[in-house]
Write a structure and sequence with these properties.
Elements: H1 18-23, H2 25-33, H3 37-45, H4 47-53, H5 58-66, H6 69-74, H7 79-87, H8 93-101, H9 105-116
């Protein structure tokens, strides 16, 4: 099967490619720092200062403030790093998936179970 380099756009989806990775470097680096409990506490204590420490731009800061996963992804966030951010608030990947799809968490879980067959 021939390989192609062109990607077909998926409506409403931000493709995480090299451009997005570069765009989201500071955001993802900050989210990775949340592996350390002291960094999670520092973020909660001074969210804006913590974002400034990592050099987040205005789009990324607004997405952090709004806790909007789709905005975070659009701002260059990678779902795996964003899960570390979400964990600060007791959220998991199913919470993130639910937000991405516009479903409640229970609806999203039911959709996953139904897809298993």
């Amino acid at each position: 099967m021939p390989r192609t380099t062109a990607r077909q756009p998926v409506p409403g989806t931000t493709i995480f490619d090299g451009e997005q990775a570069r765009k989201g470097y500071a955001l993802n680096k900050m989210c990775y720092s949340f592996n350390d409990a002291a960094n999670r506490r520092a973020f909660v204590a001074d969210e804006d200062g913590y974002c400034a420490k990592y050099g987040l731009n205005a789009q990324q800061r607004e997405a952090i403030r709004s806790r909007n996963v789709l905005q975070l992804i659009e701002a260059g966030g990678n779902a795996y790093y964003l899960a570390k951010f979400a964990g600060i608030f007791g959220l998991d990947m199913q919470d993130i998936g639910a937000q991405q799809t516009g479903l409640t968490k229970d609806q999203f879980k039911a959709k996953l179970l139904a897809a298993r067959g």
